[in-house]
Amino acid sequence: MDKLIYLDNASTSWPKPDNVYKFMVEFYRSCGVNPGRSKSNKAVEAGNIIEDLRKRLTSFFGGDEDTPERLCFGYNATEALNLIIQGLLSSGDHVVTTNLEHNSVIRPINHLVRDNGVRATYVPFNEQGFVEPDDIKKAIKSNTKLVIVNHGSNVLGTVQPVAEIGAICREAGVTFAIDVSQTAGMVPINMKEMNIDVLAFTGHKSLMGSTGIGGICVRKHLDIRHTRSGGTGTQSAFPFHPDEYPYRMEYGTPNMVGIASLMAGLDWIEEAGGIDAIYTHETKLARKLIDGFHQTEGVITYCCDSMENHIATVTMNVEGLKAGDVGIMLDVDFNIATRTGLHCAPLVHKQLGLVDINGAVRFSIGPFNTDEHINASIEAIKEIAKRAREMKRPTKQST
């Protein structure tokens, strides 16, 4: 069988750069101890890795560089988003979010609405896949405590105008949070310039780290209340969880091998020419893929006519076929890995009218994809669309 063509990088980037694999193994072999739990040389060395990465990521996200301790590590963006949403909203509060959100935002909000007396407004996106800042402004009420927006859609690939939304939130005195799962390592983010109060990130996508690592970056004017508690390796005699950062948002033993992977991932991004170079490569391939789909009879694409403010994620369907069936044919017949279904973002598919046909097929390009991968994908979809057309043709009845 030919080598797999992997086009599911919005789920997780793969393969990782060689330096990430190497550094993870070498670090864990040489310094895979529990940081901050003792004064041994190895524990201090491990702690220094964490503190160095806090500083690098705070700068990377345009956070407050004089308070890098507010870059707090966790296990993924889902955990981070739960901490943000549950730590900022209380009974009687109102939250504004969008139809572009992942279930990591939708479900925590829905639980608070059902169980804790929170109210929520979901703002739709326009025909191009963008949320209008003015619609966010109109949705803000006197009791709105939080606006939370998906920076880059994991379904449509559209990058939202967060700077404009952030300015609206700052003027209204409302906390503004964003989910950068799809954009961190792909699109420039500056929390100060964009008026972002807190962001949630994951490490295993365009930051090129391993699974099981993510976190929060919190601006110094904002505090998020505790919703968890546990061990920190510090102040052990204190009967409550410490209030100071990073311990305020970190619980238990950190994922040191994941942290090491993020350190190496940032190194690789710099060596590859930075996020602008990576973005240019990936979106060039995405444009080629979209053009090929547009030239294929029976192929439908969604919100990707332009690559402006768009990451390299392309979602499509083949007329007459369910998305899951297209995905199986791509995998079995052409050795191409994509993602099908609702992509953990059901409101996107509901607004597009795709729920009844079980969603769509998503192609998400990564830094190691090539022109050959895109050419093969276009040809595969042409063949699948041809099969679909042939299935629709009436057969001649014998007399």
Number of helices: 11
Oligomer: single chain
Catalogue the unreliable spans. Answer: none
Number of domains: 2
| CATH level 3 topology of the largest domain | Aspartate Aminotransferase, domain 2
Please trace the helix and strand order, writing H or E for each element: EHHEHEHEHEHEEEHHEEHEEHEH
Extended strand count: 13
What structural category characterises the helix and strand content? alpha/beta
Question: What level of helicity do the residues show?
Answer: 25-40%
* Dominant shape: globular
Could you describe the largest sheet, including whether it forms a barrel? 7 strands, mixed
Q: Give the N-to-C terminal Cα separation.
A: 45 Å
How would you characterize this protein structure?
The chain is α/β, with parallel strands linked by helices. It folds into 2 domains: 5-14 and 273-392, Alpha-Beta Complex (Aspartate Aminotransferase, domain 1); 18-271, Aspartate Aminotransferase, domain 2 (3-Layer(aba) Sandwich), CATH 3.40.640.10. The protein has 11 helices and 13 strands. Strand 3, helix 4 and strand 4 (119-123) form a beta-alpha-beta unit. Helix 3 (77-88) packs parallel to helix 4 (103-116), helix 8 (275-294) runs parallel beside helix 11 (371-392) and helix 9 packs across helix 11.
Quick recap:
By secondary structure, the chain is an alpha/beta fold.
List keywords for this structure.
single chain, 399 residues, alpha/beta, Aspartate Aminotransferase, domain 1, Aspartate Aminotransferase, domain 2, 2 domains, seven-stranded mixed beta sheet, four-stranded antiparallel beta sheet
